[in-house]
Amino acid sequence: MGVGLGVNDVPIVGEPLAYGVGFIALLLVLGSRYLVAYINTLAHEGGHMLANLVTLRGTDYWELEDNADGGTMPKNVGGWIRKNIGSFVGYPTPPLLGLAAAALIAVGNPWAVLLASIVLSVLAVALSKGGLAFLVPTLVVLGLTWLLLAGSGNLQAVFAVGIAWVLLIGGFVKNVSLLGAPSQDGANLAGRTLIPNFVWSLIWIFIALVALIVGGQLLLRPGYGIG
């Protein structure tokens, strides 16, 4: 099976594959303490890094701790707006990436989900500091590259759908947990805007919920379209 051949022809939307992988992803999110958390943090910090790139702050490095907490250090401090953009985007990034993955799958291109995951993980490796920050995206790159080169179309489809579900469900669960454990990003935003931390948490939960609902329908309802 060559790269990109087969996976886009595997029936996914509304099929048992989408339901089954979604159920497994739910079990992983609820039952694994670190496995999904590492992936969620990788996506979260990736959001900060992309925001730093877009706002011209640049990224010096990012870190990943044993407990799955992470941090991203920009090269330039930036002004009020750029700081707030950088602080805001982290928590919406995992569910929005999951929504983007679901949209690609819905239009028949799960291969693009795998390729995009590899590209973004390579960038994370390049900016990593510390063992885990290097190891986690490296394993993603190696695993998905092998999958594209040697995996069957069905196996590639399983992982593409799994990525979408893990980001959608994991992002939502993580954001809901902010109600019990306020985030540093929310504290930074509260300090600069005077809008309370819990309000930012509610905004992030709403974004994640919408992404989960829409992304879930894209994966489970044939013919469903956004808009």
Write structural notes for this entry.
With 227 residues, this protein is mainly α. The chain contains nine helices and two strands. It has a two-stranded antiparallel sheet with strand order 1-2. A hairpin with a 5-residue loop joins strand 1 (59-64) and strand 2 (70-74). The N and C termini lie far apart (36 Å).
Labels describing this entry:
mainly alpha, 227 residues, 68% helix, single chain, 9 helices, two-stranded antiparallel ribbon
Summarize the structure.
The protein is mainly alpha-helical. The protein has nine helices and two strands.
Helical/strand content category? mainly alpha
Query: Distance between the terminal alpha carbons, to the nearest Å?
Result: 36 Å
What is the beta-strand fraction? under 5%
Separate helix tally: 9
Largest sheet: 2 strands, antiparallel
Question: What value does the average pLDDT take?
Answer: 92
Helical percent range?
55-70%
Along the chain, the helix and strand elements come as HHEEHHHHHHH
Q: What is the molecular shape?
A: globular
Record field, number of beta strands: 2
The value of Rg in angstroms is 17 Å
Poorly predicted ranges: none
Task: Describe the protein's topology.
Blueprint: H1 16-31, H2 35-54, E1 59-64, E2 70-74, H3 80-88, H4 93-106, H5 110-126, H6 131-150, H7 153-177, H8 184-193, H9 197-220
Antiparallel strand pairs: 1-2
Helix pairs in contact: 1-7, 2-3, 2-7, 3-8, 4-5, 4-7, 4-9, 5-6, 5-7, 7-9, 8-9
